[in-house]
Amino acid sequence: MMIIKGIGVSPGVAIAPAFVHIDDSGIIPQYHIAIDDVPSEMARFHEASLLAKKEIEALRELAKNEAGEEQAAIFDAHIMMLDDPEFLEQIERSLKEKQFNVEVAILSFESEMVNRLSSSLDPLKQEKVSDIHDVVRRLLGHLLKKERISLSDIQTEIILVAKDLLPSEMVMMSRSMVRGIVTETGSRTSHAAILARAFEIPAVLGVGPGFILQVRQGQSVYIDGDNGTVVIEPDDSIIQSEKSARAARLNQEKENRELRDVPAHTKDGTSIMLLANIGMPEEVVNAIEHGAEGIGLFRSEFFFLGGHIPGEEEQYNAYSQVARSMHCRPVVIRTLDIGGDKVLPELGVIGEKNPLLGWRAIRFCLEKTDLFKTQLRAILRASGQGKVNIMFPMISTIDELIRAQAVLAEAKEECKSKGYKIDEDIETGIMIEVPSAAICSDVLSRSCDFFSIGTNDLSQYTLAADRGNQKVAYLNNPFDIAVLRLISMTIESGKNANIGVSLCGEMAADPASAVLLVGLGLRSLSMSASAIPAVKRALMSITMEEASSLARQALSMNTASQVSALLNSRLNL
User: Fold this and answer.
1) Is there a catalytic annotation at residue 191?
2) Which one of 109, 168, 319, 361 has the fewest beta carbons within 10 angstroms of its own beta carbon?
3) Mind listing the pLDDT tens digit for each residue in 198-232?
């Protein structure tokens, strides 16, 4: 039995056989070859090179069609490398001199080139490092004939173990078969964590590098998503505790159902609207079951990660389904927010050197106006089926908001010209997730109908700490005074402008944080559906004066740990 600690990001316990999901850089075999084997090893190399070249040419064509010739040109360097006689000569020389298999020869070449280029003072040479990595990974994949089992094809219950999981992988995986998730990287606000909570799958992230090498395929694994514990080959006592925890959770679910139809309010009667965050249309059922009073955030980009780009009709049907299911309760649809770790090659979003600060969200949509208008028309048409609102992500300047509103106006005219029934007074809002937006929220409030504070990104941008990096997870804390001040500033701007302000970050899902946010002035919170009952109980246990007092004290403190200690000492949640 081996016990490992990570970050518990999605509650619940589970035991199941491990399914180790190894990426393309997995374990490379190393073995001696005879000099007579060199021709056959070179033949293997040429075959892999040919397959890699075909893939790269296809990617180049896709990038050209979607992003233009300039973006496509990055793949030319990859093809040139594969055709480079010096590359071939070096591989063959390594085979003859060192007499190891061709995979080792390729890795040796990579190491030598990366060391040489990395030490260069020429930035153009330094930039070639990523090209070499890409080509080498592709060659190794073909040489090793890796046939990665699609996560959508899993037929038995498993604990999914991986270095990391992309949002697209999580969206397409067989969720009913995945009992739990363990990854080497990640934090509580990474997209893998957010989706795990949305799917109500217990998850432990950030267990550290090398974990997947310690777990054998099919080996029994226990995880506790509440305290971040992972146990390989658990003993009988742990197996019994898992059964007990499962029974306790069933009782909790029964209590939650009894609370479902009770409106959220403070102890002294102040109403608080609790909404759900969803990523796929089918999640609306779970939202209703947990007592959501609406959808505060429909992450529409996850609908695009299912293997193809949905057209207007498909999007309209999905958005309409959610609108009708909520029976005129509000549904806030966030427009396409790709970029960062939500890479979408089909749209030309194929990764950047600094993707979190790059071409993502509204920046992408304002350049891809045809795609943007297609989505806006679909949302507008769905507004005829219920109370639908539009929300623009990652607004950092007033100019971006004005340009987005202009595209929306064009989409409205196109809908009306085709005779579609739409809500012509549809409310539009923006995400406050960039410090500049919070600081200028008084200006932005004049050009939109509501704010929704996204604390996941707001925290990482304010504190310069990547939310997906477990090494800096301790910095990414929404209780930090800088983040709290930006939240308070945004709430005040919304109040002064008489527009609605909600919060849809993961901060809202923590009962103690929810009390603090209500004390700061929020009357609407959006969260993972499964968190609604616990947050509702917390709010019903305190008065508005108690919540306001906590908020005033929190804003006067210096550190996140002080705020956390305050909440723990005052709230018995």
Assistant:
1) yes
2) 109
3) 888 999 999 988 888 788 888 999 999 989 999 99
